[in-house]
């Protein structure tokens, strides 16, 4: 690039030795052919922009250069193959001994700082041959210069095997970290070991290709256009086996999309490529709206209790509870129905419960409440809870829980002989089976996804005559179309359940689990049908019919670039909350 500061340095002539006269008879200056320039619409596809094999520009090493005046970079050939040759490193070392830091003199080039985006992955490859009589190791590195920081950050790209006059391959992967996302300049170079700074070398077949790029936009149904707003926060759940691998982003803009019935939602920062219905039809990642117009927030852990209101309609709908609950304090929960008996027309729906210090929605000694289409995120302890075990007729439908964490302080209760189990949390903790769980999602738990925990002699109070005793033997009303993924412990745990009527687990889906799909103990008379798992079971915990094994394709097996989808499509899932969509890639958007 011609600038005032370097215009006289663009053309250099190197003579054999001092005192030798040279005569220039003819000189021409030609622009490189168009093949020598990267695609302006895809500048980050390969950070070696062109001529990585030294075959494009004759004897010109462009766009590579030497980072030292005494080191020569040239293109030479062996038969029909051209490659880059670095010579004169011994002269650079002599300067280094006089205080000049040119011990890594040789080939270099700059890469575009704007390509260092979060959630991108690159694959580096080249071949190196050291001109040495003994084996020499080398390593490709990057110098990253940040604005206002004098000392550059050094990052490793690839370590090369030791070479002694033979070609070796150097391969590595690179993911930009958060400390280099806004660099001023980035330079790639080859560093040899400390005993061989003066050894010349050859380089061939350089490439630094993008293998995975982040996404900064989502395609959603047009129905959200007047419901989701610019500046609102969205959650994308974990798409790996890590329980905490979720992301949250702000909506930057919402625009009409070319495809009828959809809008384009731009995000303030890119996200990693999640699982979609296009790439993994059975295991699409969830995306949910977290923001609500009405927000309740407590500095020291507030709680809302609906206490002893039988036959009264209680409706909690469309609000955000942030920072509610007191860790380790019994009965201090964001939403708590306590001793309400029959609450047939009571509804808890379309709320978000965020960063709760103690649980999310707790139903205790209350029957027939509808808990539907709620989003819970970042809570401590169990999340959606049936507490007493004798509750009946409550419906948990289309709720999403994500990022449930262990508590450090476990509450004790006088009603139950011992401590609660919130230090191994379940997003759905169920002590009473005669209720309904339909189409719920447990996405990222430091404990379990779903846990039926039946306690013998749970309560000492004998005056609660309106409830049925022995919840461990009560029938299961319905458990259908529920999903669990990305949990530390099992997806479904059942402890001490012996119903008098066969309990049916229908269409349960479990994947990306670290420990296993099921943990069943001291339980009988249970069966499952239509289960979908991503790994085989060592043994069946109960009779299972129609189980389907669908593996999750490993990330390195997916070609993200050759089948690039810059925008991610979503579809509404019938089993998910109103503001939760399953990620779906649209073939019509593939380039």
From TrEMBL:
Residue spans of biased composition, Polar residues class: 573-591
Region of interest (Disordered), ranges: 570-591
Keywords: Signal
Signal peptide region: none
Matching InterPro entries: CEMIP_beta-hel_dom, Fibrocystin, Pectin_lyas_fold, Pectin_lyase_fold/virulence
Coiled-coil ranges from the UniProt annotation: none
Pfam families tied to this protein: CEMIP_beta-hel (PF24606)
Domain of life: Eukaryota
Residue ranges of domain CEMIP beta-helix in the record: 300-490
Protein name, entry field: CEMIP beta-helix domain-containing protein
Organism: Pseudo-nitzschia arenysensis
Upper classification of the organism: Eukaryota, Sar, Stramenopiles, Ochrophyta, Bacillariophyta
């Amino acid at each position: 690039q011609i600038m005032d500061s370097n215009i006289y340095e663009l053309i250099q002539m190197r003579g054999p030795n001092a005192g030798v006269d040279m005569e220039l008879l003819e000189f021409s200056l030609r622009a490189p052919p168009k093949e020598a320039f990267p695609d302006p619409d895809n500048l980050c596809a390969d950070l070696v922009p062109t001529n990585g094999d030294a075959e494009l520009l004759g004897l010109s090493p462009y766009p590579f250069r030497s980072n030292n005046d005494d080191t020569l970079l040239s293109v030479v050939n062996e038969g029909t193959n051209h490659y880059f040759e670095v010579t004169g490193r011994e002269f650079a070392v002599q300067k280094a001994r006089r205080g000049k830091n040119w011990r890594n003199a040789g080939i270099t080039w700059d890469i575009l700082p704007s390509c260092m985006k979060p959630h991108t992955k690159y694959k580096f490859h080249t071949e190196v041959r050291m001109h040495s009589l003994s084996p020499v190791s080398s390593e490709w590195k990057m110098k990253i210069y940040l604005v206002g920081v004098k000392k550059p950050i050094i990052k490793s790209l690839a370590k090369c095997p030791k070479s002694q006059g033979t070609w070796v391959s150097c391969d590595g992967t690179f993911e930009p970290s958060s400390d280099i996302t806004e660099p001023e300049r980035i330079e790639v170079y080859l560093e040899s070991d400390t005993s061989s700074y003066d050894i010349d070398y050859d380089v061939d077949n350089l490439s630094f290709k993008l293998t995975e790029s982040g996404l900064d936009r989502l395609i959603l149904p047009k129905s959200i256009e007047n419901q989701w707003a610019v500046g609102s926060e969205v959650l994308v759940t974990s798409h790996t086996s890590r329980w905490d691998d979720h992301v949250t982003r702000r909506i930057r803009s919402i625009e009409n999309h070319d495809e009828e019935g959809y809008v384009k939602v731009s995000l303030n920062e890119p996200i990693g490529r999640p699982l979609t219905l296009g790439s993994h039809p059975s295991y699409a990642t969830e995306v949910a709206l977290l923001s609500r117009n009405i927000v309740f927030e407590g500095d020291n852990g507030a709680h809302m209790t609906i206490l002893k209101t039988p036959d009264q309609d209680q409706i909690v709908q469309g609000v955000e509870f942030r920072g509610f609950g007191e860790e380790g304090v019994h009965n201090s929960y964001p939403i708590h129905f306590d001793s309400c008996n029959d609450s047939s027309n009571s509804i808890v729906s379309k709320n978000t419960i965020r960063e709760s210090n103690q649980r999310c929605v707790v139903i205790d000694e209350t029957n027939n409440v509808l808990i539907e289409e709620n989003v819970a995120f970042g809570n401590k302890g169990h999340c959606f809870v049936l507490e007493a075990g004798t509750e009946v007729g409550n419906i948990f439908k289309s709720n999403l829980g994500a990022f449930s964490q262990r508590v450090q302080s476990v509450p004790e209760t006088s009603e139950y002989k011992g401590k609660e189990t919130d230090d191994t949390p379940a997003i759905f903790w169920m002590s009473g089976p005669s209720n309904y769980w339909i189409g719920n999602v447990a996405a990222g738990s430091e404990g379990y996804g779903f846990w039926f925990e039946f306690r013998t002699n749970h309560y000492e109070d004998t005056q609660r005559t309106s409830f049925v005793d022995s919840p461990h033997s009560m029938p299961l009303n319905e458990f259908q179309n529920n999903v669990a993924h990305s949990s530390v412990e099992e997806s479904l745990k059942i402890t001490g359940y012996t119903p008098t009527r066969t309990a049916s687990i229908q269409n349960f889906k479990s994947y990306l689990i670290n420990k296993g799909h099921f943990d069943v103990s001291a339980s009988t008379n249970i069966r499952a049908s239509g289960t979908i798992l991503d790994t085989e079971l060592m043994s069946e915990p109960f009779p299972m019919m129609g189980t389907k094994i669908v593996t999750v394709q490993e990330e390195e097996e997916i070609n993200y670039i050759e089948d690039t989808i810059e925008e991610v499509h979503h579809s509404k899932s019938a089993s998910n909350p109103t503001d939760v969509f399953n990620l779906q890639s649209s073939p019509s958007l593939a380039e």
